[in-house]
Amino acid sequence: MEPQPRMISRDAKLERGNVSIRNVSLRFNVGGSSILALSHVSLEVLPGEFVCVVGPSGCGKSTLLGAVAGFMKPVEGEVLVDGEPVRGPGADRGMVFQQHALFPWKSVLANVEFGLRMAGVSGKRRKMVSMRLVEMVGLTGFEHSMPSQLSGGMQQRVGIARALANNPAVLLMDEPFGSLDALTRVKMQELLLNLWQELRTTVIFVTHDVEEAIFLADRIVMLTARPATQKGIIDISLPRPRMKEVVTSHRFNEYKGKCLEMLHAESARPIGAPSPDTLTFGVGGVAWQAPEKQASQHAASG
Amino acid sequence: MRTDYTNPLELILGPSQATERPALHKQSRSFRIRFSDVRKYVAGKIAGYLISGAAIVAFLWIWNTLSTDKVDFGLDFANVPSAQSVAKHMLHAAASKAFYVNVLISLKRVWLAFASAALLGSLLGLALARISIIKRIFMPFVEIFRPIPAIAWIPLAILMFPTTESSILFIVFLGAVFPIILNTYQGASEVPSQLLRAARSLGASRISVLWHVIIPSALPNIATGLSVGMGIAWFSLLTAEMIGGQNGIGNYTWESYQLIKYPDIIVGMISIGILSTVSTAVINWMCKPLLRWSNHR
Looking at chain A, which residue has its C-alpha nearest residue B206? Predict the structure, then answer.
């Protein structure tokens, strides 16, 4: 699919944070055999854009993120960040992991400071920036706590602050809220949108939760089951700033129908097809309804 | 008299005091329960110590009886010194300079050899875990030499080394180094890959990853290795001193046997136990501040 250039209404002047994934194929070895995880995936992410990557569990979404982060090397194609080919992990791409991945021997503040310390920033400035970030993620008062003393949601807040400390061009997020309870997840999603609106960092966010993706994204990239190829792109033109109430809107449900239709077509594939329960049908476990049915209900009530 | 609940105070103070129960109950029930819990806890502790103390007294009494009556039931207690005579000799040793010289000689040997083993062992353990070429070269040797007890090296060490002192140091080093290598290796091999990735994506260089991620992550294992290594260091030292040494606490113990100063054998044994325990405690105490983070995981 040809990436269409789009206007970012929020800020057209952004110059940092362009990610070009060009025809990337990637294999990795599991128990001696080589598995093709990505097959010819192309994607253009514009500066400041919030892109969600959605696909069945184990389809290679995280692998795509790993290729952008520089943890894994594509066998074919290349990834460019602001025109520079990715050759390994770097501080210009901040990463937030599924499991928090905080350094358990460092305090909250020391974790957040880590990137700045690696960049050789002086102690005083380091502390200033980190304190500000800790405040932005709502953890003031917990600077000197150890990660093990925090709840799952708080740990992810630290993870986000740590990744943002380096002022990365791109923020890569690998199902960061997947293991949180529903209420905390909603809070974290709102926090993330607020941060994004303030910092204007490009975000590539991997999730298997369709509702989460619609709520957060400017665009949703759907991937097929392994080997992952691009299935399609859905533009989400819900107004911003988004409040959680948007999930009950008619348009939100239309998007949901569209996404799930695409995923269902995918999971009907005979080989390598994921079971339907690998998809999350909404935050509260609310069953998804077919768009026709919703439309008729809508007509009946109206 | 109310009987709808049981009063914990009754268990400790008896029923007479417990008649004040209703008033106390109204005013500060939570305090009263906490107070009685403390009583119970302290009483339990004291009972525990009393039992342990009684066991030790019984042991000393049995020992004394067996040795003074020169009991022989297969095990011959005729030449075993009594607890009293050991106590006397212990006071005597504690007042003599020669005893302390021996202790200091042994301490010096252990700590010198142990410090070298700690440094080399942890470095090699880290290198084995993180550098594949080092692993390929050195791991076979670790596997070959590891099962050979350090004290099996004593004859060869005496033949190879120019002085007895250096051969003793070598034996102690050898005893301590393997647990340190292997524990460090294990700890450094099991660093969660997510932490390594996180550090790399935050801009850490290879050296920074080693210093900020691999070493801290391996520290609990390194500490275990050091603690075990210290125990084996003492074990190896005493054997080496008994066989090859002219001084040190191991030699003191062995010489006491040869010179028929039997109570001093036990004085030596007790000293060895104390020295080894204290040395291990020092190691644990030194490692403790570095491991605080792992305690409440």
Answer: A118
Whether the CB of B296 is below 8 Å from some CB of chain A: the reply is yes
- Provide the phi-psi class of A41: left if phi over 0, else alpha when psi is between -120 and 50, else beta: beta
Structure tokens at A33: 């055999």
Neighbours of B111 (CB within 10 A): 16
Average pLDDT value over all residues in chain A: 81
- Domain annotation covers residue B75: no
Query: Searching chain A, which residue's CA lies closest to the CA of residue B205?
Result: A118
B294 contacts A91? CB cut-off 8 A: no
Q: What are the pLDDT digits (tens) for B86-129?
A: 999 999 998 999 899 999 999 999 999 999 999 999 999 999 99
Chain A residues near residue B219 by CB distance under 8 angstroms: 105
- At B132, which CATH number? 1.10.3720.10
Taking CA atoms, what residue in A is nearest to B192?
Answer: A101
pLDDT at A272 over 60: no
Structure tokens, A174 = 């690998």
Last residue of a domain, one of B68, B101, B119: B68
Going by C-alpha positions, the residue among B118, B178, B106 that lies closest to residue B149 is B178
Clarify whether residues B28 and B148 are in a common domain: no
Tokens 């590539």, located at residue: A204
Identify the domain containing residue B280 by its residue range.
83-295
HSE-up (13 A, CA, CB side) for residue B43? 10
- Which residues of chain A are at the B interface, by a Cβ-Cβ cutoff of 8 Å? 69-71, 88-91, 93-95, 97, 99, 101-106, 114-115, 118-119, 146, 148-149, 162-163, 166
Q: Which residue of A has its CA nearest to B217?
A: A105
Q: Taking a C-beta distance cutoff of 8 angstroms, is the pair A13, A48 a contact? A: no
Burial class (CB in 10 A: 0-12, 13-18, 19+), B102: buried
The two three-digit tokens of residue A206, written as one number: 């991997």
pLDDT tens across A37-56, in order?
Answer: 888 889 999 999 999 999 87
Indicate whether B149 and B289 sit together in one domain: yes
Mean pLDDT of A74-99: 91
Residue B166, chain A, CB below 8 Å: the answer is no
Give whole-number Cα distances, B165 to A238, B152, B171, B175, in Å: 81, 17, 10, 16
- A19-92+168-301 architecture in CATH? 3-Layer(aba) Sandwich (3.40)
Asked if the C-beta of B197 comes within 8 angstroms of chain A's C-beta atoms, the answer is yes
Residue B148 lies in a domain: yes
Segment 266-295 of chain B within 8 Å of chain A by CB:
293-294
When scoring B194, B201, B221, B291 by the number of chain A Cβ atoms within 10 A, the one with the most, hence best to mutate, is B201
| CB A246, CB A255: distance < 8 Å | no
Cα–Cα distance, A296 to B22 (Å, whole number): 69
If asked whether residues B150 and B285 sit together in one domain, one would say: yes
Tens-digit pLDDT profile for residues B213-243? 999 999 999 999 999 999 999 999 999 998 8
Q: Which ipTM value was assigned to this complex?
A: 0.80
Q: Are residues B157 and B206 in the same domain?
A: yes
pLDDT digits (tens, 9 = 90+) for B123-164: 999 999 999 999 999 999 999 999 999 989 999 998 999 998
Average pLDDT over residues B233-258: 90
List all residues 6 or more positions away from A205 whose beta carbon is below 8 Å from its beta carbon: A50, A51, A52, A53, A173, A176, A213, A216, A217
